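Lab notebook, bench 4. The sequencing result for the construct came back, and we need a structural model before the next group meeting so we can plan mutations. Quick request posted to the team channel:

Model the 3D structure of this chain.
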Amino acid sequence: KGMNYMFQMMNEARLLTGMQGMATAGTAYEHALRYAKERTQFGAPIVTYPDVRRNLMLMKSDVEGMRALLYQTALFIDLAKHHPDSQQKTYYDGLVEILTPICKAYCSDHGFRVTELAMQIYGGYGYCSEYPIEQYMREHICSVCQGKRLKDDNLFIKIANQSIADVVEMSIEEAYDFFAALLKPKKLFFI
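Done. Here's the predicted structure in token form:
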């Protein structure tokens, strides 16, 4: 019984790590956007320059993508716990099992990248402690916390052998069956 509690706690910690990455990235984006609107160079705010705008749009899309991934996973968690049909509960529980480590890895890595881009928007000022970006960059440890991402990399080798065209053509049910077949021989533990 203790192992079940431990894995439940670890899965919640993985989701929290992903949320931390998304929250740090969102805050870094908001600060960079405000700075880009206020900072003028050659008589115009730097937000008007194409490269700065591109970086800001990239940051915003990353943050919104992370948020959507976390919201969707939270919905599947609720459905896995409260759906009236037991088959559907199992189905959503499987999706949560697949998405939880993805949330942790994707959101923590992209959260760091967004924070790094925010520092680029600030330029040399980003390294100064007068601005919050240096603290976000310094304290952004969620991409390294909880150790290695996958204990069993064979899952990704098997996925890589699946052609991209086949994966794109899969329905949600087919994708679930594909992952279920990969996980069937043994329980895959994500770390």
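The longest strand covers residues 40-41.
Will bring this to the meeting.
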